[in-house]
Amino acid sequence: MENLNTAILYGVPKIAYGPEGCTPFPMCIRSCANYLGIPTDYTRAMAESGAAFRLVWDTSCWNGGNVDAALTYDNLERVFRQGMRSMERGMKMLERRPETKKKDFIDFCLKEIDNGNPVIALGIIGPPEACIITGYRDSGLELMGWNVFQDYPESQTSLHFEKNGYFATKSWWENPETKALFAIGSESLPAFTPKEALLNAADALEGRLCGTYAKGLLAYDAWKNALLRDEDFPSDAVFPILVERMMCHGDAMDCLSDGRFHAAKYLHRLAAQYPSHAEKLNLAAQEFENVTSILWKEMIPILGGWERGESQICQLAKAENRRLFAGQIDRMKAHDTKAYTYICELAVNLT
Predict the structure, then answer these.
(1) CA nearest 106: which of 121, 116, 91?
(2) Terminal Cα distance for the chain, rounded
(3) How many Cβ atoms sit within 10 Å of the Cβ of residue 328?
(4) Which pLDDT tens digit goes with each residue over 20-78?
(5) Model-level pTM?
(6) Beta carbons within 10 angstroms of residue 9's beta carbon
(7) Residues 79, 70: contact at Cβ < 8 Å?
(8) Total domains, the chain
(9) Full 3-state SS string of 123-164
(10) Domain check: are 305 and 270 in the same one?
(11) Residues 172 and 223 grouped into a single domain
(12) Quick check: 74 and 215 in contact, CB under 8 A?
């Protein structure tokens, strides 16, 4: 920290896709909380941000961005503010707009890093998913940190690595997907009450259409309808088209597998804290667990594995399999609908 042109925060835990989670923004919350000594884990970050309860499907196209946690609510900032609140902190934000300058982003990062706070960013490397900025060199022209895409070969043309594993890049501003910066507010906020957390969950689960995006319970229908459009899976389709279909289908599965698992875990925690409401909290959790059970015990075996390789792509292209998936999607929606009903009832009575 002695060199005014360089500052690095060592010891910020790595974020990476894996069995512990696959939603970047709550991963960043967990990592920053761990570094700052704030008692927030991934389950709490997933549930209280709202990301655990999301499902989104673009009705206008096969959109690889469906899974983005920012789409959880109709207000794109809400999931980020709630995520920061899961650390019992407010949020400072700088969004990239036409009038925003590179210097504005640099000044924001330098101020926070110099004060010992990691910065959460959208983009920097690859798509506009959340990552963590842990330091800078050359007065901020070079930024470093953790990004879930940093180990992907296609992302490594414009970066190098620190000895501790941090990526470092000077091309972060040239990436058009570098969209925003988030810093942990200095003021402390009260934790979400169970009522607030459940109302936020209900808002994420509620079926509605926002622009071309079907969200919450309505997203199940849009997902199913897309799989049943045989014209989107022609027998002579070029392979990249089928890869795109598999990525969107796989992202929806990942969203539910990761999200509903942690939604159930969070509700079980509430049940232990509020025994008078434990029955309904555990029933709601069980419905979410039923969703993940369908994914793991029925959908994955048909695909032949959780991977997204050629074998799974070919299985998805088969009309008979997609009709089986449609039935499974209807059943998952039914379980989510029951969970939603329990959550709405509980939100009325919990404090």
Answers:
(1) 121
(2) 45
(3) 17
(4) 899 999 999 999 999 999 999 999 999 999 999 999 999 999 999 999 999 999 999 99
(5) 0.96
(6) 22
(7) yes
(8) 2
(9) CCCCCCCEEEEEEEEHHHCEEEEECCCCCCHHHHHHCEECCC
(10) yes
(11) no
(12) yes
